[in-house]
Specification:
about 20% strand, single chain, rod-shaped, about 50% helix
Length: about 600
């Protein structure tokens, strides 16, 4: 934008060198396509990123349900195993196995034989049972004959101190789940890895005949079945499965897991682990005191979004290359038309009023060329008619017309129309053309007087065309009560003041400026104010302008020559309006040009000038 603003400023000052209209059109084209393309691509990527996340969440929810059903089915079989003791005669009677009794060995052998037969009926399909033990009132009555890993059941105190012991009692007949290996202690770092190669399933067995009897069935299950089903569990996104018990202890994980990672998973927070970002969805396992967590990678989703951005950028670049080639092929017709108009304006700027604008290819430029030809013809006629007046009046009128139709203003306006046409802003282009045509008709009118309402309408169109050049740097405000809009005043009285405010006050500024024209009645006078908050007038120049006489054009310096001529023209027009009219200039916080007309000399024309 700074580059475009610099181009417009150089054009207005007549210092353009080496920059063609094609370059300007190309800049406008790139600006008008690049910004929307970036916005559209960004919105599409945001939309697809959310879509990917939604798809991932839905996929994980389906997977969680499938895994939940598998876990439920698996533990339902385990549940069948743990309910086998209820069919044993020992737990459905008041029998007591007393180690001191003479028949204890025989009763124990009978117990184990009956229990082995019950166990054989339920464990035939389970190869992941590492240990199976039945413990009752301080003695173990049965253990799997295939394994000998009962060192942790060597005495009563060991059993009662096991974490699963308290859990089993709390379960009150439900299956409870406990890790085989405890959480790493405080001496371990937060990066310590849990061991989930096996876990305990414990069940408290009620004896309805001996409610005070404590009977436990303990299974030590390996993770082989879960590993076979879940470790290679991959969907559209990288994921793994975590199972915790009702106390938050880790029972199983298909991926090695640290303490910090487990805490984040249970809080369902997004977290960084193993150089990837993860999130999870959790739910309870039906019928069992377990919680299932399906953890999925967010990096996969981000990678898909980045791939979309990459492909979108490639497509955009290819489109831009094709568009630039077509641009250079097809923009010759508009550059030819623009060069023709610029050549006409150049001749007109040098004072050649015999020049005419030839027909060009662009319809809008043809309309402007026709208006310029009409303007030149009427201008010549007006100069010829004014020549019959006094030399002073002729000079003033000539300067007035030259002041109103500055070739630089026309050139800048044409560049604005070119930019609007290139970006396809048809509404602004049509409005600009109508405003320019209205200005030309207004300037070329033979009427000496107009009304404040008509003058303000002309100024509004003039300032709206200037905004095509300055953009947000220029704003304007035209204030006039409805009852004052019909007051007569000399035509084009205020335009030089507004032009000075724009060209000499606002154009050199880099900040946003306001040009304000206000008409009001103050006591016995009609008050007209033209104000801007631009760079202001240096004290020395202001003093020179205030001291110069109405026709003293030769005293003006090169810098303020046009300003001095414009003020002299305004003073002369004021004198034609009222001999008692005054003009005052002040440039402190803002530059203010104030015109005062005695109210008794005001003439009113009751027309609607809106």
């Amino acid at each position: 934008m700074n580059k475009l603003r610099s181009i417009w400023k150089n054009n207005a000052a007549g210092r353009i060198s080496g920059i063609t209209i094609s370059s300007r059109l190309l800049i406008c084209f790139l600006a008008s396509t690049l910004i929307p393309a970036i916005l559209i691509t960004g919105l599409l990527c945001l939309h697809y990123d959310r879509s990917y996340r939604r798809t991932a969440l839905e996929q994980m929810q389906v997977s969680r349900n499938l895994i939940g059903e598998y876990i439920k089915s698996y533990f339902s079989e385990v549940n069948t195993i743990t309910t086998a003791p209820y069919y044993h005669s020992y737990f459905s009677s008041a029998q007591i196995l007393d180690p001191s009794a003479p028949d204890y060995p025989q009763k124990l052998s009978d117990f184990q034989t009956e229990m082995q037969n019950l166990i054989n009926l339920t464990t035939y399909s389970h190869t992941d049972i590492a240990d199976l033990l039945i413990w009752s009132d301080g003695q173990y009555l049965f253990f799997s004959p295939l394994y000998n890993e009962l060192w942790y059941f060597s005495n009563r105190m060991v059993v009662e101190e096991q974490p699963w012991y308290a859990h089993a009692l709390d379960g009150n007949g439900r299956m409870v789940f406990t890790p085989t290996y405890p959480r790493p202690d405080s001496d371990h770092s937060s990066e310590a890895i849990y061991d989930t190669s096996s876990f305990y399933v414990t069940r408290y067995i009620h004896n309805i005949y001996r409610p005070d009897q404590i009977n436990l069935m303990i299974l030590n299950l390996t993770s082989r079945s879960f590993d076979a089903q879940l470790k290679d569990f991959h969907l559209l996104y990288d994921s793994f499965v975590v199972i915790t018990n009702e106390y938050g202890d880790l029972i199983y994980s298909s991926k090695p897991l640290t303490i910090d990672a487990l805490d984040n998973i249970q809080n369902e927070e997004e977290f960084l682990y193993d150089r990837s970002r993860w999130n999870c969805i959790s739910s309870d396992v039906p019928d069992f005191p377990l919680r299932l967590h399906v953890v999925f990678s967010l990096d996969d989703i981000r990678q898909q979004t980045l791939s979309l951005i990459f492909y979108a950028a490639q497509i955009y670049l290819l489109g831009m290359l094709l568009a630039m080639v077509l641009f250079y092929i097809f923009n010759k017709w508009i550059t030819r038309s623009a060069r023709t108009l610029l050549a006409t304006f150049s001749e007109l700027e040098q004072g050649n009023l015999e020049i005419t604008c030839p027909s060009v290819d662009v319809k809008e430029f043809n309309q402007i060329g026709s208006s310029i030809n009409d303007m030149i013809a009427k201008l010549n006629e007006k100069i010829k008619n004014e020549y019959l007046l006094t030399i002073q009046q002729k000079s003033l009128q000539l300067h007035a017309l030259q002041s109103q139709i500055q070739p630089h203003f026309m050139v800048n306006t044409i560049y604005g129309f070119i930019a609007l046409n290139q970006i396809g802003d048809t509404q602004k282009l049509n409005d600009g053309l109508y405003n320019l045509a209205y200005m030309l008709r207004y300037v070329l009118s033979r009427e000496r007087f107009t009304t404040i309402g008509q003058e303000q309408a002309f100024l509004e169109r003039y300032l709206s065309l200037q905004r095509l050049r300055f953009g947000d740097r220029l704003s304007y405000q035209l204030d006039c009560p409805q009852e004052l809009r019909g007051i007569q005043l000399p035509r084009l009285l205020l335009q030089p003041l507004v032009e000075n405010a724009v060209i000499h006050g606002i154009e050199p500024c880099e900040h946003s400026c306001l040009c304000r024209v206000a008409v009001s009645r103050q006591e016995t006078n009609l008050h007209i104010l033209v104000e801007d908050n631009g760079i202001g007038i240096p004290p020395k120049t202001l003093s020179h302008l205030l001291e110069s006489r109405e026709n003293d054009f030769t005293a003006a310096t090169s810098r303020d020559e046009k300003t001095s001529i414009g003020l002299s023209y305004v003073k002369e027009r004021l004198h034609m309006w009222s001999a008692r009219a005054t003009l005052h200039i002040d440039s402190r916080e803002t530059t203010r040009v104030e015109i005062q007309i005695p109210w008794e000399e005001v003439r009113y024309e009751p027309v609607d000038c809106g």
